[in-house]
Amino acid sequence: MTPVTWRAANADDAEALAYLGAATFIATFAFDHPGKPLIEHLRAEHSTEYYAKALARPDVEIVIGETPLGAAVGYAMLTAPAHPALQQDGDIELKRIYLLGPWQGGGHGVALLNQAFAIADKRGAQRMLLAVYENNVRAIAFYTRAGFSAIGETVFMVGQVPFRDMVYARPMG
Length: 173
Prior knowledge:
Structural class: alpha+beta
Low-confidence stretches: none
Shape: globular
Helix content: 25-40%
Distance between the termini: 31 Å
CATH class: Alpha Beta
Radius of gyration: 15 Å
CATH topology: Aminopeptidase
Number of domains: 1
Mean pLDDT: 96
Strand order of the largest sheet: 1-2-3-4-5-7-6
Number of helices: 5
Strand content: 25-35%
């Protein structure tokens, strides 16, 4: 397996994050997400502009993983939580954790999640939240092994199509 180096993303990474986000989203969800809404979602939520704005926000941190040749293969994005009915003081949200398929299953996912935990610890978070699509069985198993438990649900819009996401939480520390 090609090694991955993890580092804090910066403004120069916005385009790489956009391509990586779009590629992983399509690979993961094309099996049951309609094409046109999927493209609408990618245009809005995985554009270079989206990531440039996110990287400029003080409440957002993104860690990016690269091969020795500098190709981006994964990232984690942490933000203020977006689940008012489920969140508590001291929460942080793992908004996105994406890893290209060839790098899954070899320890890189755990390494990326550990990078997210380090950011949460640095920020003094007491609990980490994340939302995951209810049919993403592989991701749910990964999060459960990492100590996350379901605490509720939310609606995730892909274009104009609603999908049910489960919200998970994990105590920090």
